[in-house]
Amino acid sequence: MKRDRLSKDAGGAADRASQEPAPGAVPAVDTRLLVREEGVRGYVGEFRRKLRSGELGSLPVVLAVIIIWTVFGSLDSTFLSAQNLSDLSQQIVGTGMIAVGIVFVLLLGEIDLSVGSVSGLCAAIFAVLNVLNGVNEWLALLVAVAGGAVVGLIHGFFFAKVGVPAFVVTLAGNLAWNGLMLQVLGTSGTVNIPAESIVAELYSTVFHSPVAAYAAAAVGVGLFLAASLLDARRRRAAGVPSRPVAEIVLRTLVVAALAFVTAYILNRYQGLPLALLIFLVLLVALDFVLRRTTYGRRIFAVGGNIEGARRAGISVPFVRMTVFSIAGTMAATGGLFLAGQIQSASQTSGGGNLLMNVIAAAVIGGTSLFGGRGSVWSALLGALVIGSIQSGMNIMGVSNAVQFMITGSVLLAAVVVDSLSRRSQKAAGRA
Fold it and tell me: Across the chain, what does the average pLDDT equal?
C-alpha cells in the first residue's frame, strides 16, 4: 500500500512538472497582445519593427500621393482645385476597374497581358449590339460583361488545365482579341455611343445634391465601424487577439475624416459622381471576397505557396481559372466605363498605354509581383497615383513622351520597393 501511494505521489508530481514551465523558460505570448498592452509606445515599436522587416503595406503609395499632390499643387494651384480633383475621381474609374482584375491575377504570382484588348473588345460588342443592331442596352451590357468573363475563363483553361504559361496565353490573347475587336467593328472602325446610352450615363451621371456625397460617406464609415466591431467580437469569441474598442474608434475616425473631406471636395464642384460610387462599392464587395471568404483565402494560399495549397486540398486549377475569369470581367467593366467616358468604341479602344497603366496601378498600389500579398484597394491607390501624374503633367503642358518616361520610372520604383521589401522580410524570417 505504501509503495502504491508513493507511486501515485510520484506520478502526480510528474504531471504537475510537465504542466509547469521549466525554470528560466519564457512562456509564449502573442506579440500583438504585448503591443496593445504597451499602448502608444507599443504601437510605435511595432511600426518600427515592420519597417525594418520590410512590411511597408500602403505606406509608400500614400507618401507618393502626398508628394505628387504637394509638388503639382505648388507648381499650379489648379491641380488641387475641387474641379480637377473631382474630374480625377471620375477619370481613374475605368483604369482602376481593370487594375482590380490585375490585382487578382498578381495575387497568384501571374500576369495578364490581354486586359487592354479585352476591354476594347467588350466595348465594341456593346456598341455594335446596342447602337448598330438595336439590341436592348441592358442586354447588350450583360452580353459584353459576360464576354469578358468567358474570355478570361478561356485564358484560365489554357493556363490551369493545358499548362501553357499565363504570359504566353495572355500575350496571344492580346493579339487575338484585338483582331476580333476590329472584326466586330467592321469597316466603319468607330461606333459613336449616344449621350443618353446607359454606358455614357453610368460614367457622366453626377448626384448634385450635397446630401448624396455626405450620405455615402456616412454609410461607408458606418459599415467600416460595424465590420470592425463584428470582427473583434468574433475573434474574442474564438479566443484569439482582437483590436480593442479604443483602437477601432481611432481607425474609424481616420476613415471618417478621409470620407467626409472627400465628400466636401466633391460637393464644392458638382457633387458625387455615380462612376466613383460604383467603383467604391465594387472595391468593398471584392475586398470582402478576398479577405472574408474561403475562396479569397484560397487565392492567397495558391499565390503564396502553390504546393502547400495542393497538399491542403485546394483545387488549384479551379482557383486559377476563376481568377482569370474575374480579370476578364473587370476588364470588360472597365472598358465599358472608358467607352462611356469618350462616348465611342473604336479601333484604338483598349490600346495605347492602357495596359501599362493598369499593371502599373496594381503594382504601384502595393500588390506584389511575386504573389500572395496585396489588396483590391491597391487598384484605387495605384490608379490615383497614375491619374495624378497624368493630370498634373497635362496641366503643366508636359508632352506625352515625357509622361511615358515618368510613369515608367514610377513603375520601376514600385517594383524595386517590392523587391527590397520581400528581401527584408526573408532576412527577418517573415516570408
Answer: 85
